[in-house]
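Regression report. Comparing outputs from two consecutive submissions.

Submission 1:
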Amino acid sequence: MKGQLGKAHRRFGGDTLVVATHNPGKAAEIEDLLGRFAIAVVTAGALGLPEPEETGTTFEANAELKALAAARGAGKPALADDSGLVVHALGGEPGIYSARWAGPGKDFALAMRKVEDHLAGNPDRRAFFVAVLALAWPDGHVETFRGEVHGQLVWPPRGTKGFGYDPMFLADGLAMTFGEIEPAEKHRISHRAVAFRKLVFKVER
């Protein structure tokens, strides 16, 4: 993959983009970010494409793996996201395993409880969200874009507007968690939004 990333940037010029996710919350957020472009968006879930096993050891590797699988499966360019919560006091966990902490039922109330239990009263509540977007073409060309947003963890969780770990994450400079703020505000400042701005800057040039 690293060799491919060294190639010249490729401009996306199509009219349809596959979003490589089966997560409705993530799909909605990415579709909202793409809303200002004249691009038809279809998810891997809607196309019936299987979710590939995430065998990478980094956010970048897993995002590339998912994007390439969707691009080759659909025969169209695909955008994938690999994201997670990184907690300083837990040595970076749950990190790339953030979704797995929610179990097979994807119960993020359980996942947040697990994070809190692992902290076991540790006063270091620093954490950050990471999102890596990978844009891939069926021929194997792929580019990645990383975004981060830093903050603190709160307990108990607050708000029902986000998804995943949003209700326990308070970004630096905010008084409300990602689960409390309006989606439009979150989409403006989130880790995914930071990565998306990098993608647009590179791809549109």
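Submission 2:
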Amino acid sequence: MNSTHVDWYLECSECGTLREAEGVPTVCQCGRPWLVRYRGRRHTMTERAEVRRRQGMWRYRSFLPLRAGEEPVSLGEGDTPLLQVGRLGAELGFRDLWVKDEAANPTGSFKVRGLSAAITRAVAAGVSRFTLPTAGNAGVAASACAARAGVVVRVFAPESTPATILGLIREYGGDLVLIDGHIGDCGRASKAYATEMGAVDLSTLREPYRIEGKKTLGLELAMQLGWTMPSAIIYPTGGGTGLIGMWKAFEELRDAGWVDGEFPRMYSVQSAGCAPIVTAFETGADHADVWPNPATVASGLRVPAPIGDRLMLRILRESGGTAVAVDDATLTGAARFGTRLEGIDFSPEGGAVVAGASVLLGTGHLSPDDRVVLFNTGGGWLYR
């Protein structure tokens, strides 16, 4: 099945070039990511009510790149809990604090949302061989989704990736190759393999559909809050597809008439050992320079050169948010603290947002009365 005759097209996030969605798109000729745009889709209030009776992230199929009658490659991802955390909020100084716990997804992290969408579209276009660089959790999700689809994926991961994650990649059947370096080095190896073998590269933002899967974070959050939006979202940022996808979701929900009012302020939290977005934001730059010698225990934040840098910086500024960095000792301590206080298995990246929330409150970016949602993007058990 090819991808012609679909009711969506692609728009370059940087230069505005338009193209149809046939084939297997990578990036625009200017080197920047494509964004999916839909034509002719109507979203009624009746449909909004019906969405609640469906299941999983594909309950929002009218907002997603699926044709009529088409079934996605799915493991039942989505429908993760949104938990009010009163004790953690009281300790940090918030009266209305929530955690969106993505550890409840199949494969233990939010990555499965994006990989489900990306592999769905590529398999529909006839692809049977994939490649992916990973800091960890994306490799697990890609391997599981590939197994579900009956296709092959080669996964390039740093040797320093936690052993539990590497074991899961192998268990799901991923063709794992370990690289002495960071995810940027893995990305170069993955690109070379794609060129040599004709595999489709599922790297973050180097194809347009992972954003569409991550967009369901925002769709789901709005539904769980009764079609309202919080005051602020604090998100651990590596490649940034979740941040970008949520903002896209809010725009589409507004255009559909499903939500109104102000969008949330978006806050990015990075590790002090790899903080290219924080540095770019603080210096007023419109892009992030490559971070030298990235090092952090939060492997999902160890992304020295995110291709979505311009999009992330634009969203942070447009929303009235900011970007902050916390060191590894602080984020690991915050993860342990949050886990023991609320029974949520915070990953190091989740610990980063807990610590970041405290920083943002202390600097006046957040108010104690704000409704704040923290994202725990994966389970802490994956790192043990």
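Expected: both submissions complete independently.
Actual: both completed, but the second showed a warning that disappeared on reload.
Relevant detail on submission 2: The chain has 13 helices and 13 strands.
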